[in-house]
Specification:
Low-confidence stretches: 169-177
Structural class: mainly alpha
Strand content: 5-15%
Number of strands: 2
Shape: rod-shaped
Distance between the termini: 32 Å
Number of helices: 4
Mean pLDDT: 77
Largest sheet: 2 strands, antiparallel
């Protein structure tokens, strides 16, 4: 169990160090998730091999030890394997959950940056239009189209959040993200 704990602690430390040096982009997180899934599959293969070896050991114990002792030792072997597997699965699922949450947060951050750039662009256009006088029908239509584009940008931004299952609320001092 200590080796499993050490491994997950090392993985978490490496992840934190890599995040200090980079922005933790969505593709990097997805790659880490794929690598972690490969690691999990590899460990589960090793667990299956260990189970096969333990079955051989249990057969030897049953053949060589006296009654009473063989049941105790057989139970110990089975409990050890089960506890090891459960411990591994708990650590694995905790790490996978953290990686998935991190991926969602990074996607959310990327989407917010895209929305912010779109809003900045539209805001700049509206500011430019606002400085012009609306003397002609063409200028009025241009102003109207700019406002429609601004509205659509906001609507699309909201839809993106809803589709991804985010509940975003604006409060004084910032945006609050909830899964």
């Amino acid at each position: 169990q200590r080796n499993i704990d050490d491994f997950f602690a090392k993985q978490q430390q490496q992840q934190q160090q890599s995040q200090l040096g980079s922005s933790g982009e969505v593709a990097d997180i997805e790659r880490t998730i794929v690598e972690h899934e490969k690691f999990r599959d590899n460990c589960m293969d090793k667990f299956r091999s260990l189970i096969t070896q333990s079955e051989l050991l249990i057969d030897r114990v049953r053949a060589l030890e006296p009654p009473g002792a063989r049941e105790i030792d057989t139970d110990r072997i089975l409990k050890l394997l089960e506890n090891l597997r459960l411990h591994f699965e708990a650590g694995n699922s905790e790490r996978m959950s953290r990686l998935e949450r991190l991926g969602k947060l990074e996607q959310f951050k990327t989407d917010l940056c895209d929305i912010n750039r779109s809003l900045d662009s539209v805001s700049k256009q509206l500011h430019e239009i606002n400085g012009q006088s609306v003397d002609s029908l063409a200028a009025a239509k241009t102003t109207s189209l700019a406002f429609e584009y601004f509205e659509r940008t906001i609507e699309v931004s909201i839809r993106v959040g809803v589709i991804r299952g985010w509940h975003v609320s604006c409060k004084a001092g910032g945006v609050v993200y909830n899964e």
